[in-house]
């Protein structure tokens, strides 16, 4: 390897125990938080208090199995079938527009419903884009200054995926994939000049898209001043802030929160952290944040220690994706950024997010396994 990615191979060859332990702790905290947040809601509306946690545990088992398979997959196998995964993901996104398969939920048409199961292809798109960019930038590592053959093709492919997600009216996920892609371009060593040109072109386009849908404007207004519509667009922001403040230092105790009983919308999904904060308090919140930061530090360290440019890009992309998603969700709940539909990894109810997150963890652990010996294994 050349340039800034020429790093010494470190001994090991086995998975990172601290990273595995951190993943287990995050998953355990997530299951506990979901059960506490959803117990009352599921009992009232579905007459089954265990509905959400039972589904999450089953899908967690599926995700763990797929994550283990990803962990054991040879690197050459993953790279060979990455284009197929990317094309398949785009095909799945298109299926959401077919009546009978895709349905509109909360204003976005991003779900496939089939045989009683649902899946969100845009979650898989996050993984597919990371795998694709790591693969293509490793193959073209000696031609990173070639705008036509190295920069533009992956830029077009990433833009196509983002456009398909935008067509689903899923602006937040599209922006999320865009930012992850930009970070991958930067870490791959794309010229800072090209990078700046790209950002300059994206900013006005993003602003224009932001104002094309009324609900996006309402969310922006609610973020700036939620009191302008306290029972409408600003209600969720105000309720989340109230839950955070009521947690105090130690919290009300697991299961003892009151906001989840009806005062906090999406309490089992995108705003689960507000309910959790009320119950575990500042100490618990900081512990959860430290777990995510610990996960990220192990992922980044392992990536930097890798002798393979592909493994470096892959581990960085996977780690950044999970960390950024977590921090962004916390920022939304805290009122630091406008409300979006970005779930909290390991915590929010939703099989698509949980399964893809566990697959990402399996791939990341696979990088740590490859650090001693043949990098293709």
Provide structural commentary.
The chain is mostly helical. The chain has one domain. It contains twelve helices and three strands; from the N terminus they run αααβββααααααααα. It has helices at residues 17-46, 51-72, 75-95, 121-139, 147-167, 171-187, 192-210, 214-224, 235-246, 272-305, 309-333, 351-369, and strands at residues 102-105, 108-114, 117-119. It is globular, with a radius of gyration of 21 Å. The chain starts with 16 loop residues before the first helix and ends in an 8-residue tail after the last helix.
Chart the SSEs and their pairings.
Elements: H1 17-46, H2 51-72, H3 75-95, E1 102-105, E2 108-114, E3 117-119, H4 121-139, H5 147-167, H6 171-187, H7 192-210, H8 214-224, H9 235-246, H10 272-305, H11 309-333, H12 351-369
Helix pairs in contact: 1-2, 1-10, 2-12, 3-4, 4-5, 4-6, 4-11, 4-12, 5-6, 6-7, 6-11, 9-10, 10-11, 11-12
Biggest sheet: strand arrangement:
1-2-3
Rg, rounded, reads 21 Å
N- and C-termini, Cα separation: 18 Å
How many structural domains can be distinguished in the coordinates?
1
Structural category:
mainly alpha
Averaged pLDDT: 86
Low-confidence stretches: 1-12
Strand content: under 5%
Portion of residues within helices: 55-70%
Record field, number of beta strands: 3
What is the N-to-C order of secondary-structure elements (H for helix, E for strand)? HHHEEEHHHHHHHHH
- The total count of helices amounts to 12
Give the overall form.
globular
For the largest beta-sheet, the strand count, sense and barrel status come to: 3 strands, antiparallel
